[in-house]
Design brief:
The chain has 104 residues and is an all-alpha fold. The chain has five helices and no strands. Helices cover 52% and strands 0% of the residues.
Length: 104
């Protein structure tokens, strides 16, 4: 099951870039921040997989870390195999974090 809050956030598109200093970028960031914080933990496995597509290329002023921790609240890790070369750096980071947890 996917909650409306998750769908609303995903519809906004990938996280805005820290390099976007336009007024539209500021408005988009604020809307994404509100939508992301409206999602309560934990997320379902299905929600976590859907949220993976919301990462941008940078930290989006910390929102990417919030998104990562939200995704990691799912019962099962959504990234359990090495991503292909050139994958989003946040997906690669989730792979490394998963791999490191398994090594403990």
């Amino acid at each position: 099951m996917i909650r409306d809050e998750v769908r609303d956030f995903v519809r906004l598109g990938p996280l805005t870039s820290e390099l976007d200093d336009s007024e539209e970028g500021d408005e988009a960031f604020e809307e994404m921040e509100r939508a992301l914080h409206a999602i309560e933990k934990p997320v379902t496995d299905e929600e976590a997989r859907l949220l993976l597509g919301s990462f941008g290329e940078d930290a989006s002023f910390g929102l990417a870390w919030t998104l990562l921790h939200l995704i990691e609240s799912a019962p099962s890790p959504p990234v359990v195999s090495e991503p292909p070369a050139g994958a989003n750096p946040w997906i690669e980071m989730m792979w490394v974090r998963y791999r490191n947890r398994r090594a403990d």
